[in-house]
Amino acid sequence: MAVATFAIGTGEFALMAVLPDMARTLGVSVPVAGHVISAYALGVVVGAPLITIMGAGLSRRRLLLALQVLFIMGNAASVLAPGYRSLVYARFMTGLPHGAFYGVAALIMAAMADPARRGRAVAGVFVGLTVAHVVGVPLTTWGGQVLGWRAMYGVITLMGVVALGLLARNVPEMAAGPASSPLRELGVLKRGPLWFTLATGAIGFGGMFCIGSYMTGVLLTVTHVPAGVVPLAQSLWGVGMVAGNIAGSRLVDASPVRAIAVILAGSTLMSCLFALCAGNMVAILLVISLMGGIIGLLPALQARLMDVAADAQVLAAALNHSAVNIANAFGAWLGGAVIAAGYGMQSVGWAAACLSATGLAVFGLGILVQRSGLRRLPA
After folding, report:
1. What do you get for the CA distance between the two ends of the chain, in Å?
2. How many Å apart are CA 216 and CA 157, to the nearest integer?
3. Nearest Cα to 298, choosing from 325, 279, 335?
4. Which of 107, 123, 142, 375 is an S-S bond match for 249, by CB 3.0 to 4.6 Å?
5. 376 in helix, strand or coil?
6. What is the mean pLDDT of each run of 10 residues along the chain (379 residues)?
């Protein structure tokens, strides 16, 4: 599972660093080339619920393998794409299995583990994603800069093939529930706690992406660090993600609700410190390493969705990643908006704090509503 998510995480984020080279070779501007990234995110948002519903009757093992094959095909198509438009389609295709894969993988890992260690099992799925930020993204970025972005996607395709072989060999057969069906999966959408949890992720996670999208700009124009420090900051962010995934999994095992509240409160605090410490290199690097730990919110939200989804576990788990990609898009947009409004590059920290605090408020409201007995939205 970790090898597969390592490949997925590397493929999702490595493009950002080679975007100028891709724009040049395709004969488009950098902003236009950025639509390639948006196409992947759109594929995640669309594919997570659509593929999950279509595959509701399949065994979880077969569905997981089919999703991995689609990931390989999408990356291979990216290598062979003759132009900009075909590359956009290829990245959209590659994004389609993303959310469903993470959701199904998390359910398989949780089912294989002791209930008392469910959080650590789910976090195991995201180990590859966090390590990708420390190792995979820097290495493929370097390779892409030397050999070109097509070679980068070629390596990611090969990683996907290796992961497919490991999944086929090691993942046990796990049938879908006897009553699993598209209509039953869709039934989870009537549950109020589900929507509150998804909204928590879509808003609260935006704080991390708000800062992550403009971190390099803050370091170069506000902190005034040498350009060589930027890769160090990216690595510290990745190390923080690894640590946050591990720590978050233990919080989840104790209480998913408490884990979400603690991580969002910490995200709010760290975002404020990011704005306040932007002028000091040592302080900002420390804050950046701590900000990466917010990734622990991902397994916490995943576990919470498992608790509130009843018999529609697969769709609920997949929708978590649709929510995260909405957070990615919205966080980046809000950060750009406050900068464009003239508040300064470091203002992304204050914007991120607002998103994290709002996500915490939404989650708290959801808990109050659930405890009041209003467990379902009107049909």
Report:
1. 37
2. 28
3. 325
4. 123
5. strand
6. 86 71 81 77 83 76 91 94 92 89 80 72 74 73 76 90 93 65 61 87 90 83 85 83 84 88 95 94 93 86 80 72 83 84 90 96 92 56
Q: Which domains does the chain have, with CATH numbers?
A: 1-180 (1.20.1250.20), 185-374 (1.20.1250.20)
Give CA–CA dist 348/18, Å, rounded. Answer: 24
Quote the CA–CA distance of 134 and 236 in Å, as a whole number: 8
CB 21 within 8 A of CB 129: no
DSSP secondary structure, 104-171, as one string? HHHHHHHHHS-GGGHHHHHHHHHHHHHHIIIIIHHHHHHHHHHH-HHHHHHHHHHHHHHHHHHHHHHS
> pTM of the prediction?
0.76
Burial class (CB in 10 A: 0-12, 13-18, 19+), 143: middle
Tokens (6 digits) for 283: 């302080």
Q: Give buried/exposed letters for 292-316 (b at 16+ CB in 10 A, else e).
A: bbbbbbbbbbbbbbbebbeebbbbb
Q: Who's near 17: CB < 8 A, 6+ residues apart?
A: 137, 141, 144, 145
Contact 221, 339 (CB under 8 A): no
